[in-house]
Write a structure and sequence with these properties.
There is one protein chain. By secondary structure, the chain is an all-alpha fold. It has two domains: 46 residues, no CATH class; 30 residues, no CATH class. It is built from one helix and no strands. The longest helix has 39 residues. It is rod-shaped. The N and C termini lie far apart (70 Å).
Length: 93
């Protein structure tokens, strides 16, 4: 098992029994089992994703339509910035 014979495995189990005692071993096994189950559950579930924003095309191409888009990296800007938080482009003079 795992490339070890039964001798070293029994020695390791005996050391664990001495360190934790017979009363704490069931608690230790339970907590290890819960951790393994939570890791498996987190690995199997798909990650929570943010749904994409709805794109509404109004047909406007003036400065009002591009006020919230960086002219350099073309990413959306959600606030009033002097510099683009994505690429550092200077937005205001």
């Amino acid at each position: 098992m795992f490339g070890y014979s039964w001798g070293p495995i029994l020695i390791i189990l005996l050391i664990v029994l001495i360190l934790f005692g017979p009363r704490r071993l069931p608690e230790l096994g339970d907590s290890i089992g819960k951790a393994i189950r939570s890791f498996k559950k987190a690995h199997e579930e798909p990650p929570d994703t943010i749904p994409p924003k709805e794109v509404t095309d109004t047909g406007a191409v003036g400065p009002a339509a591009q006020a919230n888009v960086c002219p350099s990296c073309h990413k959306d800007l959600s606030g009033d910035f002097a510099f683009c938080p994505h690429c550092g482009y200077k937005l205001k003079a």
